[in-house]
């Protein structure tokens, strides 16, 4: 699949880091100065990227596991969705879930981007739903035996 992209960051395009990776790393575009995230602070980090996602697809913005593990850095609305009709700059809403400051540097890999097909649904109003073994069992109901 080929997708149009504008890169105003001067950093590499999103890229797969291994042969079987699902996500492509995305870089921070902070030419003026780094951004410091204090504990529990969040910030919208620009990437300098503008995407033309095809109709029927979305780009999912996901956290990088290394940042999460080593520094407690996540994404507030994870996964974030970039819709096919959005043409603005891709920005990543990072959050610092640790107890120490974290400095986001220009060119740092801050997120992963996964492009995925999606379906559109038409809801069908009903009075009943089909029966299943799980039924209405909610959070944690399948792992307590």
Automatic annotation (TrEMBL):
<feature type="binding site">
    <location>
        <begin position="64"/>
        <end position="66"/>
    </location>
    <ligand>
        <name>substrate</name>
    </ligand>
</feature>
<keyword id="KW-0460">Magnesium</keyword>
<dbReference type="GO" id="GO:0006226">
    <property type="term" value="P:dUMP biosynthetic process"/>
</dbReference>
<dbReference type="InterPro" id="IPR029054">
    <property type="entry name" value="dUTPase-like"/>
</dbReference>
<keyword id="KW-0546">Nucleotide metabolism</keyword>
<feature type="binding site">
    <location>
        <begin position="81"/>
        <end position="83"/>
    </location>
    <ligand>
        <name>substrate</name>
    </ligand>
</feature>
<dbReference type="InterPro" id="IPR033704">
    <property type="entry name" value="dUTPase_trimeric"/>
</dbReference>
<dbReference type="Pfam" id="PF00692">
    <property type="entry name" value="dUTPase"/>
</dbReference>
<comment type="function">
    <text>This enzyme is involved in nucleotide metabolism: it produces dUMP, the immediate precursor of thymidine nucleotides and it decreases the intracellular concentration of dUTP so that uracil cannot be incorporated into DNA.</text>
</comment>
<dbReference type="GO" id="GO:0004170">
    <property type="term" value="F:dUTP diphosphatase activity"/>
</dbReference>
<dbReference type="GO" id="GO:0046081">
    <property type="term" value="P:dUTP catabolic process"/>
</dbReference>
<keyword id="KW-0378">Hydrolase</keyword>
<dbReference type="GO" id="GO:0000287">
    <property type="term" value="F:magnesium ion binding"/>
</dbReference>
<protein>
    <recommendedName>
        <fullName>Deoxyuridine 5'-triphosphate nucleotidohydrolase</fullName>
        <ecNumber>3.6.1.23</ecNumber>
    </recommendedName>
</protein>
<dbReference type="InterPro" id="IPR008181">
    <property type="entry name" value="dUTPase"/>
</dbReference>
<comment type="similarity">
    <text>Belongs to the dUTPase family.</text>
</comment>
<comment type="pathway">
    <text>Pyrimidine metabolism; dUMP biosynthesis; dUMP from dCTP (dUTP route): step 2/2.</text>
</comment>
<feature type="binding site">
    <location>
        <position position="77"/>
    </location>
    <ligand>
        <name>substrate</name>
    </ligand>
</feature>
<dbReference type="InterPro" id="IPR036157">
    <property type="entry name" value="dUTPase-like_sf"/>
</dbReference>
<keyword id="KW-0479">Metal-binding</keyword>
